[in-house]
Design goal:
Largest sheet: none
Number of helices: 7
Helix content: 55-70%
Oligomer: single chain
Number of domains: 1
Amino acid sequence: MLDFYKLDEGEQDEMYALPYYITILMASADGHIDDLEVNKAIALSKQKNKYPHPDLECYYALVNQNYEDKLKFLIHNIPNSIEQRERFLLAKVKRAQSILNKLDQKYSLVLIDSMRDTALAIAKASGGVFSFGSISPEESRVLSLDLLNYVAIGQRRHL
């Protein structure tokens, strides 16, 4: 279980919202969010809830409560312009980086792995032949975020 007891309530809320922000950031990397990406995110949340990493079981049990409704609510309530939406989401991700530094390194790595898996799955959801498998340059840029590459906790690791 993640050691969120080290975090205040606002920081905990931000960490529980992180999968949503990562999903929306990746899905909107090309300027729009399509149904394939939203549906992939919903399916992935169910999978992570059904087969969670042991250290993330409680985390995803909370994150995935009403996941589809929360995701759609956020999509419709974040800024509409591409630039404003990206700024908003990047600010949320940057904030998460500082919060991750307060957690035990083991848990930070497990959580980052999970966020990266989510981002990759969303990126592959609507690209390539028959909308499967390819990652656009815009999505690659999002995947290069420090949070998704372990820089947030002082490690570099290539997946």
